[in-house]
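[recover] target loaded
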């Protein structure tokens, strides 16, 4: 009888634990990003510790190109991919329901299919629920109808995300939250500090062992563009309900002064991120969710592009089809928030807050 001497097949969590323990013994990459100082606090890593480290990781990939233990070394370290797998698994496991999360994390086709269904429903609504009067796109759907459709589609996914982040906080052992921890986390997120790999020269996402700030710039364009669009919607809500100033709004108005630049930033950001994903090495990330991630990037760009196109087409016969397309992309974005990569912002911010509340590693204490 022959003996099987091949190494055991490890789960994503077990392999991440193996790799992190080797990294913790080496510590060559200690100053690269938030992951490496956090990992020096202990020698043994529970599943919750790995979940926290994985969500601290921004997949900048600098550690991979600096590592002397990557393949063909027998250790075969690939920390970016190992943590990416644990990170995606945590999003799927903590989501409600898990089956839907797994579907949309991995299948861009499912995302496109949902878009087609929602698009058909909006075309039906535009034909069946058209009001007798109204200006702009309110000539096709009233304000109250839009609120009735979109308020639940926005609030309920946020509630699901809140529940999953609560479970995440418990799993990683997050402590009492103080204002200083929140401010530190928001500062890091606003500057996207960890996309510089800890040295300020940029990350290695799309250029191998060469540094680039492109990924950080495109992420910032996307994030701040999205926040401007959200602020545009919030200001329009305030104008409508607080000041009885109803849409449509002119270009020289707060909603448009926020929304138009925000939309342009999102279009550029999504195009840039999509381009970088095509250039990047898929083996250094969670390859099984590549299609879902790319579809989500394209969805974000579609939300912004269709919104800008709809505004440019005001007064023309194109308003009705463009309105249906734009509303459909927004609805799909809302519905997928708990199940797509949209959740990464919530988890990463929670990870940064939890990290800010933990004691400094022994080597950094006074």
């Amino acid at each position: 009888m022959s003996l099987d001497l091949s190494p055991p097949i490890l789960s994503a969590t077990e392999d991440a634990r193996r790799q992190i323990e080797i990294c913790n013994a080496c510590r060559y990459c200690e100053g690269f990003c938030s992951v490496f100082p956090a990992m020096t606090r202990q020698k043994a890593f529970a599943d919750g510790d790995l979940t926290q480290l994985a969500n601290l990781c921004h997949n900048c990939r600098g550690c991979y190109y600096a590592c002397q233990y990557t393949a063909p070394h027998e250790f075969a370290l690939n920390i970016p991919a190992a943590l990416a797998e644990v990170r995606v698994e945590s999003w799927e496991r903590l989501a409600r329901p898990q089956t839907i999360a797994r579907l949309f994390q991995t299948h861009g086709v499912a995302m496109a299919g949902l878009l087609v269904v929602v698009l058909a429903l909006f075309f039906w609504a535009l034909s069946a629920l058209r009001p007798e009067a109204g200006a702009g796109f309110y000539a096709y759907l009233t304000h109250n109808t839009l609120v009735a459709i979109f308020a639940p589609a926005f609030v309920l996914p946020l509630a699901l995300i809140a529940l999953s982040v609560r479970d995440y906080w418990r799993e990683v052992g997050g402590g009492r939250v103080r204002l200083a921890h929140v401010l530190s986390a928001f500062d890091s997120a606003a500057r996207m500090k960890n996309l510089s790999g800890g040295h300020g020269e940029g990350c290695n996402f799309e250029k191998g062992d060469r540094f680039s700030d492109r990924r950080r710039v495109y992420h910032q364009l996307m994030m701040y563009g999205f926040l401007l669009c959200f602020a545009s919607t919030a200001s329009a809500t305030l104008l409508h309900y607080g000041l009885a100033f109803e849409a449509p709004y002119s270009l020289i108005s707060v909603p448009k002064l926020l929304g138009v630049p925000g939309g342009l930033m999102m279009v550029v950001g999504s195009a840039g991120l999509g381009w970088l994903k095509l250039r990047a090495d898929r083996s250094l990330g969670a390859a099984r969710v590549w299609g879902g991630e790319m579809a989500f990037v394209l969805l974000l760009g579609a939300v912004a592009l269709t919104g800008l196109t709809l505004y440019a087409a005001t007064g023309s016969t194109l308003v009705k089809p463009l309105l249906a397309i734009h509303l459909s992309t927004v609805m799909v974005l809302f519905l997928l928030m708990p199940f797509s990569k949209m959740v990464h912002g919530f988890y990463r911010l929670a990870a940064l807050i939890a990290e800010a509340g933990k004691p400094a590693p022994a080597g950094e204490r006074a």
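[recover] notes: Residues 3-7 have pLDDT under 50 and may be disordered.
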